[in-house]
């Protein structure tokens, strides 16, 4: 009986994680956060496994513009991975052509692979290729990862 309960809970977790949404992108908040209209209700999506430069950080606005060019006003699919501490759905987003928005941001140099969450070897290779080609944020001689930038700005604000 206990084994059966473990299997049921494990399957429930997999099924919840595999939830998908289809909707029109109505807002691009920044390079890695969009809003979709799903069944008439807004759903804020934080892109899984990537981290784009923050607003006010070099390449932050360019990352937002790039994300907007790829998805704003389009019907996309989002495959839920989890929720974050702000209540956003964390998901991989697929564009109308079936390609991953998350991967396209890394390939174009407008996002880092967020290795704390993503262990994708394909994304690691895409980031290395963008860096070698000096695409997007990799044009900067000393790019600062967004998680480091946020940490620096929290310290400065607390002083």
TrEMBL record:
Q: Which keywords accompany this UniProt record?
A: Endonuclease, Hydrolase, Nuclease, Signal
Q: Which SMART domains does the record cross-reference, listed alphabetically?
A: SNc (SM00318)
Asked whether the keyword Repressor is assigned, the reply is no
Ranges for domain TNase-like:
19-140
Q: What is this protein called?
A: Thermonuclease family protein
Pfam families per UniProt = SNase
Q: Which domain of life is it from?
A: Bacteria
Q: What organism does the UniProt record list as the source?
A: Chitinophaga chungangae
UniProt-listed InterPro entries: SNase_OB-fold_sf, Staphylococal_nuclease_OB-fold, Thermonucl_AS
List the taxonomic lineage.
Bacteria, Pseudomonadati, Bacteroidota, Chitinophagia, Chitinophagales
Q: Where is the signal peptide?
A: 1-18
Q: Does the keyword Nuclease apply?
A: yes
């Amino acid at each position: 009986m206990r084994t059966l309960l473990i299997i049921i809970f494990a399957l429930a977790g997999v099924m919840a994680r595999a939830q998908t949404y289809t909707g029109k992108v109505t807002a691009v908040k920044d390079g890695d956060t969009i809003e979709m209209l799903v069944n008439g209700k807004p759903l804020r999506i934080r892109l899984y496994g990537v981290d784009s430069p923050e607003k006010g950080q070099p390449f932050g606005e360019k990352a937002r513009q790039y994300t907007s060019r790829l998805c704003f006003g389009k019907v996309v699919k989002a495959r839920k991975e989890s929720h974050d501490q702000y209540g956003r759905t964390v998901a991989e987003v697929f564009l109308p052509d079936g390609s991953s928005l998350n991967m396209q941001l890394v390939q174009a140099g407008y996002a880092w692979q967020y290795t704390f969450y993503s262990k994708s070897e394909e994304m690691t290779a895409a980031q290395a290729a963008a860096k070698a080609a000096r695409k997007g944020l990799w044009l900067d001689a000393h790019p600062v990862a967004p998680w480091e930038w946020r940490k620096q700005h929290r310290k400065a604000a607390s002083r």
